[in-house]
Structure formats: structure tokens, C-alpha cells
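#data-curation
PF: Archiving a pair of folding outputs for the training set. Convention for this channel: one message per protein, sequence first, C-alpha cells after, nothing in between. First:
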Amino acid sequence: MRFGRRSIRVRLLLLALIPLGFVLPLTISVLAYWGGDYFNQLLVTKVRSDLAIAHGYYERVSEGVGGSVASLADSARLARVLGALPRRHDKAIAAVLNAVQQEQKLDFLYFLDVDRSRADARAWPVVASALDGQAKTATEVFSGAQLFAISPALAERARTPVLVTANARADQREVEVRGLVIHAAAPVHDASGRLLGVLSGGILLNKNLNFIDRLNAIVYPEGALPFGSAGTATLFLDSVRVATNVRLFGSTRAIGTRVSAAVDAAVLGEGRTWLDRAFVVSDWYVSAYEPLLDSRQQRIGMLYVGFLEGPFVTARQHAFAAIAGVFLLAMLVAGVFAIFWARSVFRPIERMHSTMHAIEQGNVDARVGPLSTPDDLGIVAAHFDRMLDRLQSQASSLKRWGESLDAKVAERTAALEQAVADLKAAQSQLVMNEKLAAIGQLTAGVAHEINNPVAVIQGNLDVLRDLLGPQAEPVEPEIKLIQEQIHRIRLIVAKLLQFARPQDYVGYLEPVAAGPLIQDSLLLVRQLLKTNNIAIEQHLDSQRQITCNKNELQQVMVNLLVNAIQAMPDGGLLTIAAEDWDAADMPLGIRLIVADSGHGVSDADREHLFQPFYTARKPGGNGLGLWVSKSLIERYGGNITIENQPGQGARFVVWLRLEPQGL
């Protein structure tokens, strides 16, 4: 009785608390999924706008450099100097250029006369554009020699040791000597409009800390990022950081470190803008990378802005924890309220429970009786007592009816047993279909995951051979061996995919005669026949041709022949036959028969013989041969059956229709 009371109380409490217990995890899950996704979208939108601001500032700086050079080229100050003095080796020109270079904060500024600028135009499209009368500004990559020719100090400033960086693409370089330069050129004319030459200038971005710090301050001013996050900005020459405010440790900037391989492939390799989280030197950042293009529209580097992801993730976790705490508190309050409120429900239910227990013990006269609470439970109790009265009067009649029902039950039982047998058969087929589907998915996944590294190995092997050239001859046998093993892996992957998606590998269909097919198959296993001392008996009585893929049907025959040979390790007789398959005097197809004189197949093995990964030969078999063969034949609308007498050999029959069905 005590257990009964406790059971009722527990059920009522669970009835009140389970909905809250369901709502809490559901709400948390929805918030975690949708809220987290929306939160990530907000972060991506934020970093996209940051990249737009950084791009705008970079464009303004480029326009400022171009404007400074163009203004000087069009200025009367330069025209007077060029008109009054010889243009070659003129100290006055150098003085004017040096003064403007200092005023405009350019790293270099020089004048090329018409002859020199025409030679230089072959190297720089901006100079060629200036020769055509159009001022132009572009981001270019200067070699170490070109920087040294302009100024040894610029060459030294551009020189950057390339540091080993986690997650970066492999690179053998130890030092980066090239320079990332905003390069501008403008035509210079005399008073009559005659072209005198080209004025060329620019700024070197390598280790230009003023530029990168100013860019970062514009994109991420103080207080722009909540939760204590920090913003960063970087300029890359190819994949190497040449100007950045990202720190390695302390005040040391991460100049010379490299971008991760994933970002390298997406931005520099494919030319896409990266808007996602990325690992930057030592931490995860919400990052934006866009490619930098030179005057030839070649990708030469990247512009990056981003901010620490960790503080935002922590804030999101705290918010979820607060919501969970509120729900837990609500459940606690609701539980306390449910306990006090449920007391008025416990007592009537306990009386009804006691009455039912007494009736179960044989006291058919037990009743609930009148209750002091005129509520719904009181009405239910009164109905319950009336129902017990009716049940008692009907019990005797039900007993009589039960006897008559026994006969009908026995009749129905037989039908039910048959239905259960049919259900078990259908269930077994369903389990088999699920196993095959799982095998197909697993095989396709494995084949896909193998193909990716094989493609990388093949690509890098081709690059290795091209780069080494004649120097690869000493290791040519090893390279050839690698190539052969790659081809072997691809063949294995192709067979795995054939297991996973056989419908995608239906080959060329052609008329195939049974006689030549059997002879070709015997030729493939002739060595096994000789080794095992097997005699062959052939009965090729069918001249019909069937439409199928010859290679697939040959694969089935070879598999059956190999199984038959392996069933006779001490020698024996291998019988092969081809017969017409007719029904109601109508030609349906042919039967291909492979029989051995071995020990036959046991009933236990026969039940699972055509299931994948089941083999009666342990060890040595993988259990796929008969399954694949049966799948191929069934794909053409045929079937494979086994006629077996243990101790007298096994006889496999391949039923093939003249025309395939179901393809």
C-alpha cells in the first residue's frame, strides 16, 4: 500500500515536471543551434564591414600616393626646373624630388626621361601607362635587386626572415627579400605639351608599421569591440606577413610568419575572399582576407583584418548558462508548487487504488464509497463504483462467452502464426537491406576519403618530377614505383565504389555467347586448374546470346570457378554447362552451371552464403565474391541459386535473361 501511494505521487509530480524538463533542453538546443548560427553570422557580417573599411583606407592611401606623384608631374615647379636645366644628372631636379618625397612621405621618387622610361616600361605597366599619357597607381612586387637599385635602405627594410608557422603550407624559403610597393607613375610634359618623361614614386609596405597601425586604428578604434576582444590587421606578400600588429609574444610582431594553408589555398589559390574563423599565429580569430592584385591582375598578397573569437564565444556560453539557470530555477519553483497542490489529488486516487487492489485480491464487493470532495475526482469515483457493479454482473456472462471464444482463439492462432512467420521473413529482408545500405555508405565514404590524399600525392609527384627535371633520373625507379602504387590505389577505390554504387558502373551492353565466355573464363583460371589437378567436363548445349556487359559476366564466372576449384584442394572434377532456359515453350534466357565434386556446403553456411562479408573459407576469404556476383546478376533481372548435397559437391546455377530487366 505504501508503494502504491508513492507511485501515485511520483506520477503526478512527473506529470507536472516532465513538460518543463522537455521544454528546457529543447529551448537550450534551439538557442544553441539557431542562436549560435545567428551569432556566427553577426560576427561574419561584422568582419566583412571591417574588411570594407580596411579596403577603403588602403585605396585612399594608394590614391594619395598616385595623387602626390601626379600633382608634382603637373606642377609648374617641376616644369620650370626641367625647362631651365639639362635633364640628365641635374642636382636641381634631384633637390625638388627629394623635397617632395619628404613632404609626401614617399619611400622613393625619381624622374625618368623619355628614353629611360621607355626601357623601364617593359617591366612596369604603370610606367607604360604614363608613357601613353595616363597616370596610374598599382600595388606591385619589387625584387630585392630592384629595391637595392632604388635604395639599399629599402632593400634592407624589405628583407624578412621567414619563420616556421603552424598550419602553414610547406615552404623552403628562409628569407623574403621582395618588397610590396604601392607604385605610381605620371607623365611629365613641357609647356608645349611635349612628353619629357615619367615621374615614378611609391611607398614600401614591408615593415611599414605606421601604415598598418593607422589602418588598425581606423578599423578597430578603442572601444569598438565588446567583451575584451582585440582587433588586428596585416599585409601579406604572398603568404608571408610583411606588416602586421599581430604579436608573437610581448611586443614582438609576427612579421615573417605565414598564413594557414587553408586560407592560402582559398585566397591566393582560388582568389576568393575569406570570411570565417581562422587560426592566426597562436589563437583563433574571426577573420577576413582579400587578395591583393598587381597591375597585371595577378594575386601577389592579401589584406587581412580580424578580431579575437574567444571573448565572443565565452560571452555566448555565459548567456546560454544564464538561460539554463533561469529554467532550472523555474523547474524548482514549479516542483515545490506541484507537491503542495497535488496533495488534494492524492487522497481520492489512493482510495480508488486501494479499492482496485482489494478487487485484485478477490474481494469483489469492495467499493470506493462517497468522497468529501465534490470535484471531478468525486464524480469519477462514483462512476467507478457503478462500473464495478456492472462488471460484477457481467463477469458470469463473460465466463460463458470465454468458453465459446476459446475455439475461435485456436482458429485465429493458426492464422497468427502464419502472419508471424511472414513478418519474420519481411523483417529479415529489411535487416539485410539496412546492412547493405550501411555498407554502401561506408564504402563510398572510405573511397572518397582515400581519393583526396591520392590526388594530393599524384599532384605533388608531378610537381616533384617537373621541378627536378633531369636531376630526378637517379630516383626514377622509386618515382615509377610510387606512380604504380597510386594507380593500384585508384583501382581499389574504383572497385569499392562499384560495391557502393553498382548502378553507376553498368558497363557497355553487348550480345554475349555462353561458349566463348566460358572459354575465356577458363583461360583466366588455368593456372589454378593445373596446380590443383582439376579435370574439366563441359556441356555447352546453348547457342543463345544474352545482352549484358561481358566483363561483368566474366567476373561472375571467374568467381564461381575459383570457388569451385578451392572446394577441391585434393583435385576432382569441375563440371561446366550452358543450357537453354525456357518457360511455357517460350525462350527466357540461359542457365550457366558450375559444379564441383568437393564436400558441398553445409546448411548453416548455405543460409548466409550470399550475404556480404560472410565466408565459409576461414581464413582467406573476404565474403564479398558471391555477394557482388549475385548483385550483378540480379541487376540484369537474373538470379544465382545453389543446389547442394553435403559430401557430394555444390552446383551453382546462374539464371540470365536474354534481355536485361531493371537497368
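PF: Second:
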Amino acid sequence: MKMFNLTFDPSRHHYAFGVHDRVTVDGVPYTVDGHSRNERGLVLTMDDGSGRCRAFTHQELSRLGSMGKIRVEANHYAPETAKRRLADGGVLLSELPENAAARVTKKSAYVEAFLEMECEGKIKRTDASIDASRHELRGRAMAYVDRLIGGLSVAHSQDLNETPSARTLRRWLGQHRSLGMSGLVDTMSRRGNRNRLMGPEELALMMEEVHRYADANRPTVKNIHHNVQRAFESRNEDREARGEPPYRVPSYETVRRTIHMLEPFAVTVAREGAEEARKKFMPTGGGLRLTRPLERVEIDENTIDIISLASAAALMGLLTEEDRMRLGLNKEKVRWFLTVAICATTRCILGMSFSRSAREQASLQVLQMILHDKGEWAGAARSNGSWDMLGTPVLIVTDNGTAFKSQRFRVACADLGISAIRAPAGLPQMRARNERFFHSLKTGLLSRMPGQTFGSIRERRGSDPEARAALSFGDLAFCLVRWIVDIYHNTPHIGLGGETPLNCWRRLTKEWGIQPPPDRDTQRAIFGERLKRRLSREGVLVLGMRYHSEELAQWLLHKEERDVEVRWHQDNIGAVTVHVGSRKFTVGAVHPGFDGVSARQWIAGIRAARASDPRQRYCERQVVVDANAAIEARSTAATRLAGLLVDDWSPERILREEERLFIGFGVVADRPMQPVAGDGIGRTVPDADVGTAGDREDISPTKFASTRPALPHGEKDHAHYTSDTSPTSVASTWKITE
């Protein structure tokens, strides 16, 4: 049985070109030499007069032809074709204007009808024969058109009902015989005198006034026409006084057409400004070709058009008056500044922060949110959906705000391997996705909330937003997070072809994946605070939390105490990075249970522990842990949503907190369980030095009162020491066990 080859091979065809053809290959025109073809290919000469040639194999031309990259203009260089191009400009019949195409249609129909009748022997090319067969000729011509052309409103040259004279028909036949249907194209559209009736002086006088249309005062066409009339009347008075004929005053239509002949961009710049001209005339294409999540992330800042009551009842008990003033939670009606990061590919919101003004901390906090799962904030707002978009972006595009010009932001992007660029000033369309998000936020959420300030005084009208302000910061953050997670991420987006941002993220991450965020140590190095601390045999101390490790203890066996640099991160006080000379150590907290605890929670727990007994100098670790748990249980949503606020943990603030809370106050290890007596009755009496002041830690930032050696990260109360634990055994040899 014979098998047929149904596959297409684009390299098996051999193309033939005429010597008068112009061949354009991949945009470059060539001429053809009839003696430059062989079995392997052919040589074409570039059509630029340089005489340069290029060789093409038959396989290469076949492949380019299958891709539609070869254009052949048959007989382009033939004398008769070149002569015809002088008349019709070399346009395709399909590109003719409507009136010219209608005339060609009529001519072609009558030519085809005549040739058909001539083949049948029913007509000759004499005047008498053509006039005698006029009616049949018209009937057959109408059969060659798709649409009947005729009527009172149609020109004589286009009306099929108007049969051409014998002489005209013979001329059409000759043109058709020479160049085919292209020979029927006429130059009727070039008829008429298109020169202005005005002379040079009249034209100059009119243009002098017409150019005044491009003015910042934005005169109307009617104003310019009146000015032209006055100018001509004034000039005519002088001419009449000299006995010269007056100029003809241009009509309103002449002035209007002349104004519209001015360069539109220059007119818009003069009348509306350069910014409006750029917006109006900037070309728009298909947009960015983005395929992967986090390929481009846009970060922008904007004020929220909501005047909120900045007090949040669930947070007030956890903050001092200084904290409330710093965060803007001082019961004043304020407008919040919102910084938002959006994935340009999927339109998902990757991070946001609230602040009273745009600053460096806001940009850094949003950058960190991009790297983290935001489920805690979605849970705090009791969202039904998830907010788990995270990863390391490839490119970040920002505006020219000071927050994004800062050294820390640029260094953080560089350390994360992120390319950061700032869009040109005054071109918000370069960050169009973020601009669109803020518009959706305004129309979709803020318009439903009390205290809306509107975008302008005209929109506000008689409304008093300050009198209607009723939202606390907690309410505002709750509504915004809930709207983003449950509504915005699940609404079909026109920029995604009707797909929702959440589904787009899920689909593209499954197809392309994402670059994971850096580990905790790297994030601490990039975003953590640089603190100077004294390294002693008890480790280092930050905000009352002591950090020590076996590595530091071994290092101190050979080195004296010294000042070191500590990297500390506010979101996880369970560990720090200590830089000692050219080495660095990741050191955990001496007391276990603080991994993942934030500085805000730690400070709140210490305040709660001290509030129970202001005269108390020490408290056990478990007391602070229990206080944190109680605060978390009581105000989970409030404390988590507070993480959206920009909070500055500068070294100066840390020092103030240490001086305020930890001078003369310490945290000790949990009190050991009392051993049970061997006979099961009662408990044994512990040694006199167990639980005494010698076993406590004074964690003042200026002095350590305790002489107890440090515990390693994760060490429990059953740690052994080779020396006595009394305060008098300071010089004894000691060891941290694992």
C-alpha cells in the first residue's frame, strides 16, 4: 500500500523570479540577474545602487517564503509598469480609496462584459455595434459587480447605469490589454486647482493671527477668525488709501482648516503644557511582555482619601504615649500614607504599609513583606481567602520618592539580587498597574467608607469629611486587608483577560515557579538594625534579652571583652548575629521560647509583668511568655494589623526602651521544680543558695549584676556547671553543656 507524506517540508521548494521583478527578502529589496542561478541557489543584487550581492540557497529562500518574508513585485522594472506607476503611484487595487475603487469596478465590469460578448460574436468594436448592443452590455456588466452602483447621489463616472460611449469603452479595452485591471486606475482624484486663492502677503497676514491659536490662554477658533477679520480690515483700509485693491477676507472655514493644519503636538504644548501633551500623544502599544510572577514588581506611594480616627482601642493599652505619638495613634483625625507593592504580571498585592509620611522605613517594610507569607494579616482580618504570595522579585520599579532613593533601600535590593529602577518623574503611566490599583481602591472600597476626602474640592462639594470620620486605624487596616484578599484578588481583571489575580498567580507559579526568599540570617543582615554592644562572658544584651552561645564562649577563652556589632531584627528577637572581628556568629537567646517573637510583643510582655508589681526587680521567663500569650489571645487582630504600621526601631529608640524598662529590672530563668521527698511526704528543703539573688540576672544595659555564667541557646534549667553556683565562685572554671 502506498503511503502519502502529509508532513510539510519548508526547504524543498525552488522559487523562480523574472529579470524585471523586484524581490524583497526580509525587508531588503533586491534585483534579479538572469544568469546567477544554479542548482544550489541564486544570487540577488541589492536594490540600492551599490552593486552588492547576496547569495541565497534554495532551502533558505524556501524557508523564508514559508514564513511570509519574501515579497515579489512582478515586472516592477519593466518600462510599461514603471510608466504606469507615474499615474497610479504603484498602489494595490485593494488599497484604492472608495471612489477610485468604484470607478475601477465600473470599467472592469464593462470591459469583461464586452470581451464576453465579443467571444460570442455578438458585438464588434465599432461605434454602431457598441451603440446597438448598449442594453445587453449594461446588463452583463451588472453581473460582474457585487453591489449595484447607481442612483442620483452617485457620480457619472461611478454609475453602472451610465453606459460608456464607444470611444471611451475602446480606451478602456486598450488600457486593460496593456496592464490588465491595474491599467483601469485613473488619476481623477488629482484634478482641480488645489492652490490657495490668497497671495503670499495675504497668506502671511492670516498665518500671523492663526499662530496665536497656540497660546496658553487657549483662544477659540472663533476668536482667531475675528482677529483675522480685524487684521484684514485694517490692512485693506491702508491699501484703499493708497489706491490698491483690497485683500479678500478669509472665511471662517478657511481659518478653521488652517488651524487644524498646525502641528498638533506643538499646539497642545503651548495651550495645555508639556505634561498634557505627553499624555495625549505618547504612543501606546501592547504593553510589557511579562510571563512570570515577580518578573516585575511596582512599588508606589499614595495618600488614602479617608480621614480616620487614629486611635485603635485594642492597641492603646500596649503602647506608651511616646509610641502613640510616633505612630500617629494620638486620637487625631489624620490621613494615612499607603505604600503598596504589586506584581505586574499577576496584579497581586505583595505588600503594603501605613505611615504618616513617606519615608525610608515604609519602603523597607514593604520590601520585607514581599518576601514573607502574609497569612497572619489575612487571618487578623478574618479573610476567607489566603494571602500567601511571596518570593524574591527580579525587577522593582518605583517612583522618584525619597524613600526609594535612600541608601538602605538600594543596598537591600542589591543584596537580594533585585534590579531596582526609578521611573521617569512625571510619567505615572510607567507604573500604570499601581496607579490602576489605587483607582480601584478608591472606587471599590473608600467610596463606601465614612470620612472619604474625595480627590478634589469639586468632588467634595459640600461634604465635611472630618465631621464624618469614624474609622480607627484598626478598622481601616481591617477593611483594606479584607478587601484586598477577598475581593480584589478574586475579581476578574481586564488586564489579565478576565482572569482573577489569584488564579493568575496560582497558574503561573505552577508553570514557572518563583525564586524563594532568603533565609532568616540573610534577612537579618539586610534588614536588621546595627547595634554596638559590649561582649562579655555573659554574651550580649539587647532590649533585656541576653544572647550567648558555645562558639562565643570558646572565642572569649582566647580574647578579652570588647565592643562588637550586633545585627538585630525587630520581627524575631529569638536570635541575633554577632560580628567579632572578621567572623560572625548566629547567636540564640539564652532563654528558650522566643523564636519568632517580635520586639513589639516582648516590650508589651515586659510592661505587663512590671505593671503587676512596680517594685519587683526580677521576673521569671515564663511570666513574660505567659503575658505575651495573654496579650496575643486578647488582641490577636489588633496586634497583627499593627504590623502594617511603619515602626522605627532605630538604635536610639532601642536605647530609650532599655533605659526606661530594664534598668534595675531583670528576667531570670524559670524557678526549678522542688524535688519530692523520697518517702513521698512533702518536699525536700533546697540548699540555701538555690533561687537566691546570686541566681538572678540583672540585665541593665549598663551593668550586669549577676555572676552566673551564660546558658546556650535552648538550654533548660537542668544545665550543669562544674563550679558552684553561688556568687562567690566567679573565678571558677565553667562550661556550657548541650
